[in-house]
Amino acid sequence: MELPQSYIIDKFYLYSTKVTESHTYLNGCCPICREGKSWGKKKRLFYFKKDDYFYCHNCGRGWEPFFWIKEASGMSFKDIKEELNSQGYDSNFKLIFDTISEKHFELPSLPGECVNLKDPLQLKHFQQYPIIQNALDYCKSRRLFTAINAPKTFYCCLNDRIHRNRLIIPFYKNNKIQCYISRKLLQSDEKAKYLLKSGEKKPVFNLDNVDENFPYIFIFEGQIDCMFIKNGIAVSGIHLTDEQEDILLREFPFHNIVWVLDNFRFEQEEVRNEIIKKLKKGESLFLYNGEFETFKDLNEYCVKKERDFVDPALILDGSFSGEKGLMVLGN
């Protein structure tokens, strides 16, 4: 059912507090969760006028206006209808319990309170947090917002015990966020550079972006590098787990696999030995030569060259396997 927006706004002002209003949204304290006992201090509830829905960043819940008003006020279905009639609203719509189904506007499974770095509304609201500008600067300097194979957006976590003040890189599956990995932004962060969501067993990053009609899949160690080439995916390491291998065989059985690891010239002997093993097994690897030779990885190449993508033909031309790859590696 649709409620008159003026009625919805009146209720927002009535049940919330410290309300601010713009032409696109209202923001105030959430009367349902009481902002985690921080009533009057934090303001995490939003009513988005154009989309006609409520979302609270503390509750982690979303509501259609009718259900938010019902929960915030304790009013019944009948109470709301009678109040609308008493206030002179034209209620030609039928309010029938059996025909109303609640919509859930849920944010993806992300750590703590996260800010969408591509959402102007959220950026405006959280602009006072220095870490947000830090995250934006990092993404821009690494060309993540314009990379050809980047996910739909990135987040910055504000308050999670593990992922606080880190860049959140989401993994999508069937157009929904499956999990995430966080990348540290601050030198004072003593945790590992990358942290996978707790409980996950190394999912494959960017599978949703694979073009089935393009016959190659490029496998990278890290998520950032794979954003700069068509059909780039990342597996958080230099080997496929059994689960990752099963996924690729099941979903893309006819694609040719090319490994694009970091430049072997910058790697330790242990990693170089693993590269040699891959070549001996007949796996195809990109070996950094020619214009790529001096760069540690693909992202560094794109940043220095001011490019948002690498032509797959260049990677294929520089990829080898078997004895020929070993000869190139020896040079």
Layout of secondary structure:
Elements: H1 5-15, E1 20-21, E2 25-28, H2 34-37, E3 45-48, E4 53-56, E5 61-63, H3 65-73, H4 77-86, E6 114-116, H5 120-125, H6 130-141, E7 155-157, E8 166-173, E9 176-184, E10 194-196, E11 216-220, E12 232-234, H7 242-251, E13 256-260, H8 269-280, E14 284-286, H9 298-305, H10 312-317, E15 319-320, H11 322-330
Parallel strand pairs: 11-12, 11-13, 13-14
Antiparallel strand pairs: 1-2, 2-3, 3-4, 4-5, 6-7, 7-8, 8-9, 9-10, 14-15
Written overview of the protein:
By secondary structure, the chain is an alpha+beta fold. It folds into three domains: 5-99, Alpha-Beta Complex (DNA Primase, Chain A); 108-200, no CATH class; 205-331, Dna Topoisomerase Vi A Subunit, Chain: A, domain 2 (3-Layer(aba) Sandwich). The protein is 29% helix and 18% strand. It is built from eleven helices and 15 strands. A hairpin with an 8-residue loop joins strand 7 (155-157) and strand 8 (166-173). Helix 1 runs parallel beside helix 3 and helix 8 (269-280) packs antiparallel against helix 11 (322-330). The radius of gyration is 25 Å and the shape is elongated. The termini are far apart.
